Known about the structure:
The protein is globular, with a radius of gyration of 15 Å. The protein contains 3 helices and 9 strands. The protein has one domain: Nucleoside Triphosphate Pyrophosphohydrolase, CATH 3.90.79. The chain is of the alpha+beta class.
Amino acid sequence: MENGNTNWGQSVTGVVIREHKVLLARHTYGPGNGKLIIPGGYVNIGETPQEALKREYREETGIEIEPQSIIGIRFNMHDWYIAFRAEYISGEAFSDHDENSEVIWLDIDAALSKDDVPELTKKLIGSAIKDLDGLVPTKYSGITKHAPHSLYCI
Length: 154
């Protein structure tokens, strides 16, 4: 669940939709305990948000994904949280039996109406299903040689 390499000020999540179903995990701790949420977690030091999201999905759900567009960003005085629309690549969903007790593909309409799906998860699912591109990866020549960089634009 945590390591000494965690950047506690940066976190990511992603909405993965396949065959009109969204992948959700039943959280086992903190304010989300017992709730069905979209998987995600903290970015490790030296890791890009996209790499972190792929790792978190693999660790928590067994699913391989590819982050696509950015569908939401939450800021506060202490940290930031980026939400991606992500594409299912492969794998069978399973629980890690640590951060979640179950991982399920749930019909989108059911997810949006269930009491045990928090408002933030519902908002992000709603953003993911909109027929909009969101912020998409855009190539550019960065001036930083030693650090990965990415640009997302409309």
